[in-house]
UniProtKB/TrEMBL annotation:
Residues 61-174 form the C2 domain. The lineage of its organism: Eukaryota, Viridiplantae, Streptophyta, Embryophyta, Tracheophyta. GO terms for molecular function: GTPase activator activity; lipid binding; metal ion binding. GO terms for biological process: abscisic acid-activated signaling pathway. This is C2 domain-containing protein. It is found in: Cell membrane; Nucleus. SMART domains: C2 (SM00239). It comes from Lactuca saligna. Belongs to the plant CAR protein family.
Length: 237
């Protein structure tokens, strides 16, 4: 599969490098050391041969190299891009501030933002991309980076991607910019701190969320979801 003319190629042009693709362990071993591993931001797991287990960047910008895994493509619904925008009024975990970063987990995938030092209102403005084979909940955790001790917890949140996937499945197009497709309301059981709208923006559906962190005294995280179809994958139907 070549990247030319695909949205992955566009991503490569944009320079988005954080990319997480699970591969069968055997395939991952073959390419170990040959391809940059998400700048060390993704974590490989140690499942068996049958289990989707390892992760690697799937392309190099210079050569458009793509590692194809038939098993992976047969199960892949597409890619979920989580734009981690900023944190608001996060908890203090040092003397008078924190050095926050965000960890995103879905199933066995784990991705991190950079650390913003000494700021409880950090702007990460960073896109993390997960491969989605089933619509599992996404867990978001915030930590304070510490040099001489374990990083301190600054709260966590969980969100459901099902409403967003349902909106994508509607296969809308050519809507006026700003059209609201769906609204997800905050409830006692989700972590939304306000209504979350799925909006037609610049030719695609995006979902904006303000997540209220739990297991902490304060803090919200603003994120935005978008979707990338991968030609040749199982896809969203
Ligand atoms: Ca600390
Ligand atoms: Ca710290």
């Amino acid at each position: 599969m070549r990247l030319k003319n695909s949205s992955m190629a566009e991503d490569a042009k944009e320079g988005t490098q954080r990319f997480f693709v699970p591969l069968p362990l055997s395939a991952a071993k073959k390419i170990k050391g040959k391809i940059p591993l998400n700048r060390g931001k993704a974590t490989a797991t140690d499942g068996s041969e049958e289990v989707l287990s390892a992760c690697c960047g799937v392309y190099k910008r210079s050569s458009s190299l793509v590692i194809q895994s038939q098993f992976f493509m047969e199960h892949l619904l597409g890619l979920l891009r989580i734009h981690v925008n900023k944190g608001v009024n996060l908890a203090i975990r040092d003397v008078c501030s924190s050095d926050p970063y965000v960890v995103i987990r879905m199933g066995k995938q784990k991705l991190k933002t950079r650390v913003v030092k000494n700021n409880i209102n950090p702007v990460w403005d960073e896109a993390l991309t997960l491969s989605v084979s089933e619509p599992l909940p996404v867990k978001l955790e915030v930590y304070d980076r510490d040099t001489f001790s374990l990083d301190d917890k600054m709260g966590d949140a969980v969100f459901d991607i099902q409403p967003f996937l349902e909106a994508i499945k509607m296969r809308l197009n050519n809507l006026p910019n700003g059209t609201i497709i769906t609204t997800v309301k905050p409830t006692r059981t989700n972590c939304l701190s306000e209504e979350s709208q799925i909006i037609w923006t610049d030719g695609k559906a995006v979902q904006k969320m303000v997540l209220r962190l739990q297991n902490v005294e304060c803090g919200e995280i603003e994120i935005q979801l978008s979707w990338i179809d991968i030609p040749g994958s199982r896809g969203l139907k």
